[in-house]
Each structure stands twice: as C-alpha cells, then as structure tokens.
Request: fold
Amino acid sequence: MADSAPAPEQDPTVSVSVSFHASVIDSVRDRVGKRGVSPYVEAAVRRQIERDNLQAMIQANEEIHGSLTSEEIQAAREEIYGAVPRGEVA
Amino acid sequence: MSGTWLLDSEALSLYLRADRKMTARLAVAAQDDVRVVIAAATIVEADYLAVHPARLDWALSRLVAIPLTQDLARAASNLLKSAGLRGRKYAIDAMVVATALAAADRPVTVLTSDVDDISTLLGDRLDRAGAGRTGNSTRVRVLAV
Reply:
C-alpha cells in the first residue's frame, strides 16, 4: 500500500476523533502497538476507498453498456486464470 | 490481499471506452480483492480522444496512479538497457514494467495490448507459467487485453 500514498508535504495528517469498539482497538494495539494504530487504520481505510472506487468504476461502465452477467464475469475469470472452478485458490 | 493488476494505456482506454470485456475483468478483480492501479506515466499516453474529459477526470480520480519516483525512473532506464531497447516508443512501457516490478502487493499482473514489448522488458522476470495467483512471486505476469 505504501506505493499509493501521496507525498507527505502535499497531504498533511489531521487528528480526528473516531470511535471503535474496545475489542477492535485492542486487536489493533496487540498487533501494531499503541503508536502503530494510526498507520494501521489509515492503510485499512485507504484500501477500502480503493475497493469502493473500483466498484464505482465497474458500476459506471455498467450504466453505459448494461449490467454484466455472471457468465461474462466467469468468462473473464477463465481468460485471466485459465479454466479453474470458481472459488478455487491456488 | 490478492495482488495487483497494472493497467497499461490500452487497458485503461478500453475501460474508458466502456468495453464490456474490460469491465468484466475489473469485476473479477473486485471479486478477488485485487488492487487495480496504473503507472502515473500511463496517464500521458492513454488514448483520450474518444473520451469525454469529465469522464476521464472522474476515472482518474478513482484509480490509484503509482508515481514515478527517481528510483523507478532509473529502474526503467536499466530495463531499457538490459532489453537493448531505446527511444520514446519504449520509455513509457519501461516505466510501466518498473512500476510493476516494484509494486508492493504481489503477485503482479500487467494488462496490456503489447504483450511482446512488455515481456521483452521483463526479461527473466516474466512469469510465463504462473497463473498470476502464486504467493509472493517477484515475477510479473502479462495478460493480453
């Protein structure tokens, strides 16, 4: 994810107050320590924005050319990975 | 995280022209939680003539464009030298390949209309056998669009 971050001088950090359930924040602190919480949360949020943007890009094209069928998506999957059953992970 | 797909200018142009097959490929990426990115240099050469500027702006604001750092530029220059290629025609391809080789989330696949040149630039780091699914491969797969 580090390769997508803008230069710090163009994108200063701001402090915001966000509430989490205690168990979630405990898990984060266990993993990365107290000082690692902001980078961990930022990386997760940044990735979620990428996912949402990809979905938005797909939807925008579907509004132009019509909805994709599951057959079309499966055909693309086979083109990309070869003919493997859906759900199989090598 | 299921790796990274790097779109070259033709793959980006296919998306911008609302090509159904390209949208279907992106749907596979979304299903598999693959990161879809472009090299910043690709913005220079995508075929924008057929695309409304507002649509282009909209798409580019939603795509991660990996910046060309000095390190990547030098890596691209070395790729050109190793492949025995020179000149503008190959410069942006070399930037795309350098960006792919340095991408953090592996495995990496380049979606391109120019399989031959991208493969030549990858040299022995071309993943010929892998289906783009194998763990932390340092090699890069090339997929024709």
Q: What stands out?
A: Chain A has a mean pLDDT of 89. The interface with chain B takes residues 1-4, 47, 50-51, 53-58, 60-62, 64-65, 68, 72-73, 75-77, 79-82, 84, 89-90 of chain A (CB under 8 Å).
